[in-house]
Amino acid sequence: MERLQKIIAQAGVASRRKAEELILEGRVKVNGKVVKELGTKVTLNDKIEVNGIPLEKERPVYFLLYKPRGVISSVSDDKGRKVVTDLFPFIEQRIYPVGRLDYDTSGLLLMTNDGDFANILIHPKYEVDKVYVAKVKGIPLREKLKQLERGIMLEDGKTAPANVKVLSVDKKKQTSIIEIIIHEGRNRQVRRMFDAIGHEVIKLKRERFGFLTLQGLATGEYRELSPHEVKQLRALATTEGNRLKK
Predict the structure, then answer these.
(1) Which of 53, 96, 149, 157 has a Cα at 20 to 30 A from 191?
(2) Domains of the chain by range and CATH?
(3) 130 in helix, strand or coil?
């Protein structure tokens, strides 16, 4: 037997966290009865419905996408803007992004229908390193960058320590290219971190997630992760989670 929210997540309907919300909202039925208890356990023989639709377990799939700028990290948008699932017209499974990249940010984004996998990678205690390259206005002083390395106070709390490296500067245009490595996933975090030290981000790209890179992909392209890569990501997240708890 498994917890109801885990079965819903494994079916690709939503992440486990979202599945818990669906249960609490009374939108899940088991054998014809509405269930609102998060501790409910079910078997493969139970008939489960989410929003009136019977649950059908999909084959889990895992993709690495080179997200372009100007695309929403969502499965739908009420303003009619392009979303990341539009880039997968021939994929039958109900995939969704693992975390998000801002509308104006490009780079590496994982897509899956495996809610457990997504939850492990985005849960605060399991965060893995993410490498961004930012083009910013101005040339930050070393002390300003050290503030980012130590952690800087934002409106939603102090950030965890980051690794920061200046890749290049353009004194004539007064811009800098800076690599920053973080393991958190707050909304627009990198942009807000640079805003906090007075250097607005002009362009932002996520180049690495854990050990994964964009090598071999052009913007808008994707590839399926190998089974070994999926296992490596699970192991990396668990290792990082254990490290952060110490």
Answers:
(1) 96
(2) 2-54 (3.10.290.10), 62-125+212-245 (3.30.70.580), 129-209 (3.30.70.1560)
(3) strand
pTM, to two decimals: 0.79
Classify residue 26 as left (phi > 0), alpha (psi -120 to 50) or beta.
left
The answer to whether 41 and 6 have CB atoms below 8 angstroms apart is no
Closest CA to 29 of 48, 6, 54: 48
Tokens of 230: 């999926």
168-209 pLDDT, tens per residue?
999 999 999 999 999 988 889 999 999 999 999 999 999 999
List C-alpha distances in Å: 138 to 13, 147, 151: 44, 16, 21
**Spatial distance between the Cα atoms of 196 and 208, rounded to a whole number of angstroms:** 24
What gap in Å lies between CA 164 and CA 182, rounded to an integer? 9
Name the one residue in this structure whose structure tokens are 């007075």: 198
The structure tokens 């206005």 sit at 137
> Could you tell me how far CA 61 lies from the centroid of its own chain?
16
Positions annotated as catalytic residues are: 102
